[in-house]
């Protein structure tokens, strides 16, 4: 299957949702606290509702997993294709969104048999639409994109993020951040894992790593990186899975050296 139609639909929905979040932020935003260091807004919820309704309209048999409302099984049993599941992050970068930092996006992916086949990330403030279909080049606003060619950690610009909870994994992530800040050209913390992955895919950043992400954070972005010629594993070097404990996404050339450097 080519999933051409699914890609077109996902692109259109991501744009609509991106414009929705921009508009609603200006109109009426209420911030609440899910857990310490973990914010959510009414706009995260309305964006997910908009995306879910639009997917339902086009693909009523498909299951949907979104950050704010969890799993919705396919409604129309006669069209239930079983193995198809959409992953939705209605706003990735909610803390930025809540504070007014213009670095957030909408992320939509379609998985079939556990593998992403379509991935779309839309950054409304920059009007940038990243999209990928398995087996095809990754695109930014319709133009093919490539990962960078940097092949030494010492020359690399990296990005990471930290789990909202405090504990052993958080401390390990901080140690890695300190070590890589010393040994690379710099480590950014943008606050949106989907944007981090999209920026690795288009070569703005050489590599990204993070622990404890969820399928909706990385479902679209990891396909973008693969389709742009990059490499994805977990931080230990094992094959990547969206339900796995960590992600290491790079341009490929840096992967091995960075994986060793993360063993601090
Ligand atoms: C968060 C962002 C952030 C990452 C967090 C995620 P949210 O997603 O992707 O970069 O560090 O772990 O939870 O909550 O803004 O959708
Ligand atoms: Ca969140
Ligand atoms: Ca997220
Ligand atoms: Ca989110």
Automatic annotation (TrEMBL):
Gene3D superfamilies: 3.40.190.80, Fructose-1,6-Bisphosphatase, subunit A, domain 1
InterPro entries recorded: IMPase, Inositol_monophosphatase-like, Inositol_monophosphatase_SuhB
Key words of the record: Hydrolase, Magnesium, Metal-binding
Domain of life: Bacteria
CDD domains: IMPase (cd01639)
EC id: 3.1.3.25
GO molecular function: inositol monophosphate 1-phosphatase activity; metal ion binding
Keyword field contains Hydrolase: yes
Cofactor(s) demanded: Mg(2+)
SUPFAM superfamilies linked to this entry: Carbohydrate phosphatase
Keyword Cell division annotated: no
Catalytic activity: a myo-inositol phosphate + H2O = myo-inositol + phosphate
Enzyme class per UniProt: hydrolase
Pfam families named among the record's database cross-references: Inositol_P
Residue sites binding Mg(2+) per the record: 67, 89, 91-92, 217
One biological process term in Gene Ontology: signal transduction
Family that this chain belongs to: Belongs to the inositol monophosphatase superfamily.
Protein's name according to its UniProt entry: Inositol-1-monophosphatase
